[in-house]
Amino acid sequence: AQRVTQPEKLLSVFKGAPVELKCNYSYSGSPELFWYVQYSRQRLQLLLRHISRESIKGFTADLNKGETSFHLKKPFAQEEDSAMYYCALSEGTNFGNEKLTFGTGTRLTIIP
Amino acid sequence: DSGVTQTPKHLITATGQRVTLRCSPRSGDLSVYWYQQSLDQGLQFLIQYYNGEERAKGNILERFSAQQFPDLHSELNLSSLELGDSALYFCASSVGQGVNYGYTFGSGTRLTVV
User: Which residues contact B6 (CB under 8 A, 6 or more apart)?
Assistant: First the structure.
């Protein structure tokens, strides 16, 4: 069965310092990986998808199949980055079945 | 507005009662997903519907049930409520046509069982 592991429940980083939120997954097939962000118990918002290879709000994430990781990175943290971050895995492009499995989340706090 | 609408936003009810949570997906999305978010359990997948049919089931209790109607809105029914059912219940929708663009989440229903 697929699993997503976010080893850090809490992460505090000083403003301007680099940020790395870790995500590891286990899945036998070819997964699709996502990062979601949740500000102050609001709705979850899609931050980025690995297949898009995009950078959103300065965040990037690279899928490393060898290490089965999809770590989220940002070179310079900003106070507005304080939020809950969830890594999620989809089992791929099965028609009508795009169930996402979420990690337990990492609460990122940016220290001014 | 994300396009996914959940009602009500807040619900306070007593143990043993039954409640219904409603979700309207984003226009054009055929898949609806229900998740439960609690402090100690994180985000738990409950159930998925695609175009009116149940497609995947997660850690959903037998006291809980859901359905998706012809207009694609979905309802999650929670019965014989217990204190431990207090949580934030999220609905999400996706296109459901073989390409995973990710979900669009609603703002959630906060259920408090007293």
Answer: B21, B22, B23, B24, B89, B90, B91, B106, B107, B108, B109
A10 CA: distance to closest CA in chain B (Å):
13
- Interatomic CA distance for residues B44 and A101, integer angstroms: 8
Nearest to B47 by CA among B63, B29, B35, B31: B35
User: Shortest CB distance from A96 goes to which of B90, B96, B102?
Assistant: B96
* Distance between B66 CA and the closest CA of chain A, angstroms: 16
pLDDT over 60 (residue A81): yes
pLDDT in tens, A9-51: 999 999 999 999 999 999 877 788 899 999 987 888 989 888 7
CA dist B96 and B114 (Å) reads: 37
In this structure, what are the phi and psi dihedrals at residue B83, rounded to the nearest 5 degrees?
-55, -35
Phi-psi region of A104 (alpha: psi -120 to 50; beta: other; left: phi over 0): alpha
